[in-house]
Amino acid sequence: MQKKNKANLALGLSAAGFLGTLGIQGGFGAGLLHHGFLAATIGGLADWFAVTAIFRRPLGIAYRTDILRRNRPRIMDAIVQFASEDLLSTENVMKVLRQQDTAGLMVDYLEYRGGRQRLQEVACQVLLRGINTLDTARVARELAPSIQDGLKSLALENVLMDLVRMLAEEKNSRSIIHSLLTIGQEVLSSPVFQQVLLSHISLLRKEYEGDSAGRAFVLELMDLSDEKILAILNEKLQKQLQELLQGQTQSYAALKAGLETMLMNFSRDESLHDLLKDWKDSLVGRLDLEPLLERWLEANVKGEDPFWLPGFRSFVDSNVDSFVQSEKLQQSFDRKLKDFLETELAKHHDLIPGIIRERLAEFSDDELVEFVEARVQDDLQMIRINGAIVGSLVGMGLYILVTLAERMWGL
To answer: Do residues 67 and 20 share a domain?
Structure first.
């Protein structure tokens, strides 16, 4: 049973008891009971009137009743002032926040409540959305001049000259010669090159014989056909290449020394240096970087799964690990977050009264009455019940005192 019904029942029983004992001649006990019911009825009615007067007009009486409606502006001001300056003051809010381990809550969220994955998803989505809205044409247009200037200022000719100088070192020149000789052996053995050699041998043979039958006879006598001459040439060349590959002959030493000298001369050749510089400047000057950059940005930076996304996920994950494992970072996070919140609360605290006032203004008078009454009704009904109980006790107590006075002093 609701407390309001209990309070009404207590008032009804008091009134019924009063009416039921009215006029009964039963001595002291009947009088005590009658006056107890009477006082309970009076107390219950008085408290009913007082409680009802807060929210409406009991019995149509308007004087000093309907307190909430009549005093709404003053009550609203008091509520706003209490909530904003006392309950939600910056000092009170920060006093509660300072006692909280915000870094510990963050670690718990990241490690055990799926925060790590959500943080990755949010960070990636925000970055993807931002990058996918980029105007790549404008970005390429702004970046192209800087990149072009950077390429022009890049001393590529010096790099190339240093590379040539490095190739002239013994360990590198040996590798170059070995590679060239190996390639030479493969080229010499290739069918295409063999066919070319055979064709040239045939031409040389025809030019040598000319109109002389004697020369042709001598070559036939020595059994020097085109194929045999090619075989002899291949044998000689392969033998020479093999000896050079072994690197123990004077020919190899001369070849190596000649290559190193040539490369060193190239690395010191100012005209070659200037030629490379002019070539670089000319190439960079003709290079149209804007469309190249735009296409590259569209193909590689934008999209749902660009090349940088896995790296960014790893970056977020590694930073989460660092935060979880570092007490120093957690303390710094806790301090900075609380300082930030305190600064923002102090800066925008004047908004709180307006928010509370705006929320309260949404209630009509009837809605405000119902809202307040619904939350304090049980306590107020207990006042009515207690009023009836206390009234009955006071009434019976007074009856006893009056009875005793009458019998003792004959009043």
So the answer is: yes
